Amino acid sequence: MFQITINGNPVTTHDGATIFEAAYEDQYARTQFDTDILSLHYLKGVQEKEDSGLCIVEVPGKGIVNAVDTVVEPFMVVLTKSEEVRRRQKEILQDILKHHDRDCRNCNRTGNCELQDVQYSLRTTKNPVTEAFDAVPVRADGIIVRDDNKCIRCGRCVAACEKIQGIGAIKMEGEGLTAKIVPSKGETLIESGCVGCGQCITVCPVGALYERDDVAAVLEAVRDPEKYVVIQAAPSVRASISEAFGYPIGSGTKGKLAAALRKIGFDRVFDTVFSADLTIMEEANELVERIQNGGKLPMFTSCCPGWINYCETYYGDMIDHLSSCKSPQQMFGAMVKTFLAEKEGIPAEKIVVVSTMPCTAKKRELGRDYQNAAGVPDVDYSLTSREVARMIQMEGISFPGLDEEEFDAPLGIGSGAGTIFGATGGVMEAALRTANDWLNGEPQNALDFAEVRGVAGVKEATYKVGGLELRVAAVSGLENAKALLEKIRTGEAQYDFVEFMACPGGCVNGGGQPQQKAKVRMINDIRAERAMTLYHLDQHDSLRKSHENPEIIELYDTFLGKPGSEKAHAYLHTKYQAKGE
Ligand code: SF4
Ligand code: SF4
Ligand code: SF4
Hints:
Strand content: 5-15%
CATH topology of the largest domain: Rossmann fold
Number of domains: 3
Helix content: 25-40%
Bound molecules: iron/sulfur cluster
CATH architecture of the largest domain: 3-Layer(aba) Sandwich
Shape: globular
Radius of gyration: 25 Å
Structural class: alpha/beta
Strand order of the largest sheet: 12-11-14-15
């Protein structure tokens, strides 16, 4: 460790660090002094270079250097705001803005935009760009919308798709500030092998990438007196949506979320944790059956639609490993339009089911075949956490001022096991709690399966469950999934049960979650902080096993029969198919 100075302030750093890392890694310096260095491209772990020209500092004796490329030396003196640094940065920013649709008022990212931050630092209001901007059409390609008018050509989306997801569905075409993000193959993102995970959106520093906006259609349904509109809220959203209202990362606001959705005017406000528990009933039952009857192993989870798209597109030969369970989103819709419709005497055709999800791939899931238990689509609209936060803002609701409320019943009670579905390893742990009781024939004390917790991309463990050695793995991020699938294919790795999540860290870091800026992500692990909230909720829940949820027990007693029954299969299971079949 040694010291350098940034803007005259002492900063402790280490051998091999870059000036940029030094400026952010010394927490004392970061919070006490102004050591900020401008950047627009760099994102730790994703895009670890900066070609914008903005990320410069002056080092006396060396001149102007790129802070991301230059390694610190003992006693180095760094100036982040010298006259020359600022002069060059302003020129670069003017150039970026000339190629940018500067309509902040109508942009989804306003208030949470990294380009706006740079403009504030350089005070462009004193010297605004006045040239008219010639806009090109925005391209809505399935659920992903690309707006070249807002793109600053940072390359983060390309890097996320290629490095984190191992897919490479998009590429940069052209050079400099007129380059475009285009599909790598074919004309559309789907032709290019995009699985709709939305990881490219979460890393975009500006409003150039976003999901199809379904807010207006949902609000129209809510205002329609002929419709009965219900909404469900996924587990991980309670650990993230508050970030859109200025709360610290990972603040748990389950009760406020329920209150906000009710205030918008939904007829019923339900909890997807209920159908996460239902998923465990069906999935654990399927696992036990496969083990006892020599079925296909390892069994793969099927609750993540990004992973399903990936498996169908890239590993079609392994489809029969997938559990036939629908995702919790779809199981929930199926139960609303059959069980609830029957119980409350409301025709399924009159019901509109809306979801609040951490995910963009769930929008694509709505269009799948075999997802219509009542003869109509199980779910009608799937909104991301970002869209729901925007809807709350558009309705003029003060989120922090809301009192905590409960979700509606039935379909509103969920266990701690269902709550941890939002974190990588959570589905596995929830399934193990239930399988352990079932295979032992009586309730077991074991509740925490710590080996499958944490943000590591691949976690493996072997558990003794009812006299069986159960070999399990939990994987998140598709690059990690690819590596593990190859090992399974060649027989190098052997498991009984594997949980797959497309997004690194699981749904807490889903492609539909509130975007956090690069400088926040540099010093916070948003996956771990949001997941901690879910584990805390689980730890303090009196109900921690899915099969002990009283609403689940009642659902089977009065409607479905038993897990894996003919009726449960008809309503809660589906078919997955290799692409092209
Ligand atoms: S991307 Fe940022 S700077 Fe550009 S219009 Fe949107 S909010 Fe404004
Ligand atoms: S949604 Fe996922 S797969 Fe599609 S382009 Fe973005 S990162 Fe790649
Ligand atoms: S779309 Fe967003 S992430 Fe991709 S290059 Fe443009 S600004 Fe960067």
